[in-house]
Write a structure and sequence with these properties.
Blueprint: H1 2-11, H2 16-25, H3 39-44, H4 50-75, H5 77-102, H6 111-134, H7 136-141, H8 143-150, H9 152-169, H10 176-205, H11 208-232, E1 236-238, E2 241-245, H12 246-267, H13 271-274, E3 278-280, E4 285-287, E5 299-302, H14 305-311, E6 315-318, H15 320-334, H16 337-349, H17 365-387, H18 392-400, H19 404-421
Antiparallel strand pairs: 1-2, 3-4, 5-6
Helix pairs in contact: 5-6, 5-10, 6-9, 6-10, 10-11, 10-17, 11-12, 11-15, 11-17, 12-15, 16-17
């Protein structure tokens, strides 16, 4: 029996040091959570096998979440940012709760209080930076906001330093190792959850299309990989997720690329999706009206000679953004799932089925957003590397904050540069 139990532990990736850690950390990890399927669905699907029952539960709840997603898009950018903030807090709560359950027996002092305090500090820093960047005129108009903006980073550091000192003062003899472990747990959680959600909001300000298309591609890939795997799956993909199959992985890839092309074509024709989200100081509200950039204007492309004989076309009209959507959907299909595999490894490490049981058939909020956070980072890096150029409005904002003598110096330097380039005529020649 002892040999069998040891072999089972090894198969699950557990070593002797893990077992020792269990006893030191306060016993065995949490028991896997179970989904709270609504009683109405239980009754309606009672005659089905567990496999098909799970299929219907997941399907119905997926449609409900997609409907909710469409509703919040309709309500506008401010609601979207609020939802992102709420999702961030819930994901943080789910991960921190797992750590709290593992070490609850030691009753570590100030653990939960400090965790939430650090969340507040990091959010204050990131959202303060966002407010300064995108609401510059409003900030300059209000004296208290102007002072907070000027000393924002110093205030953020002072807040964090206060939490750091509180942590040091809370250290208890014989539990140092556990407390430092949880200190690291909190900061890694902040890095994964808060930083990524901040990038999602930055993507949103570039235009709602940069928010909707990547998220939709991840959702599509998740659904289509599940569908292909459910009906055609035979070959296991990765041990971390035994239910994932190569058939689902490949089928999800092609379906997601096609979906990304179609969705991008539809959305590229609407200014409300393609224009950057900007704050209107006159109305104190967000606006999404602009002249569409070249990314969202139909252009004619030559089809490769190899495909001309197959398709019967020589050229095709499409939006340049559709080409970028191929990169987004490819990442969502091939690399995005590794966010899910990472989450699966994390859950296996602590012997839990899901992060929580918030959504029946799906687990917790973090179970649904494990791939989205990785996707958000990629989109932000992609925009910075291949899309975004210098922002004239931000340069002007910074220019206006300088002293008059500095503004005159920059003006003369710019004027001399334009004269040398031949853009402006030389006043002396006149």
């Amino acid at each position: 029996n002892l040999q069998e139990s040891e072999s089972e532990n090894k198969l699950d990736g557990e070593t002797a040091s893990d077992s020792e850690s269990k006893s030191e950390f306060g016993g065995s990890p949490p028991v896997p959570t179970s989904d709270d399927t609504p009683e109405v669905l239980n009754r309606a699907l009672s005659n089905l096998s567990s496999r098909w029952k799970n299929w219907w539960v997941r399907g119905i709840l997926t449609l409900a979440m997609i409907t909710f997603f469409f509703i919040i898009i309709y309500l506008g950018p401010m609601v979207l940012m609020t939802i992102v903030m709420c999702v961030q807090i819930k994901c943080f709560h789910e991960i921190i709760t797992i750590g709290y359950n593992v070490y609850h027996s030691y009753d570590l002092p100030w653990f939960r209080t400090l965790s939430w305090y650090f969340l507040l500090c990091v959010n204050y820093f990131f959202y303060g930076e966002t407010v300064t960047d995108y609401f510059f005129t409003l900030v300059q108009r209000e004296e208290p906001l102007r002072i907070l903006s000027k000393y924002h980073r110093f205030i953020s550091f002072a807040l964090y330093l206060t939490g750091f000192c509180m942590f040091v003062l809370s250290l208890v003899k014989k539990h140092y190792r556990l407390q430092f472990y949880m200190f690291g747990w909190t900061h890694v959680t902040l890095l994964i959850v808060v930083t990524q959600s901040h990038l999602i909001i930055h993507n949103l300000f570039e235009g709602m299309i940069w928010f909707i298309v990547p998220i939709s591609c991840v959702i599509c890939n998740d659904i289509m990989a599940y569908m292909f795997g459910f009906f055609f799956g035979r070959t296991p993909l990765i041990k971390l997720s035994p239910k994932k199959t190569w058939e689902g992985f490949i089928g999800g890839f092609f379906a997601t690329v096609l979906f990304g092309l179609l969705l991008s074509y539809v959305m590229s024709g609407y200014r409300c999706f393609t224009c950057p989200v900007e704050f209107n100081n006159d109305t104190n509200s967000f606006t999404v009206d602009c002249e569409p950039s070249e990314l969202f204007q139909l252009q004619e492309y030559n089809i490769p000679a190899v495909l001309q004989s197959v398709l019967g076309w020589k050229t095709v009209r499409m939006y340049p953004f559709q080409i970028h959507s191929i990169a987004l959907s490819t990442f969502a299909s091939l690399i995005g799932p590794f966010g899910g595999f990472f989450a699966s490894g994390f859950k296996r490490a602590f012997k839990i089925k899901d992060f929580a049981n918030t959504i029946p058939g799906h687990g917790g909020i973090m179970d649904r957003f494990d791939c989205q956070y990785l996707m958000a980072t990629f989109v932000n890096v992609y925009i910075a590397s291949f899309i975004r150029g210098p922002n004239p409005s931000k340069l002007i904002q910074q220019f206006l904050t300088l002293r008059p003598d500095q503004q005159i110096h920059i003006f003369n330097t710019l004027k001399a540069h334009l004269v040398d380039k031949g853009v402006l005529g030389n006043p002396e020649d006149a």
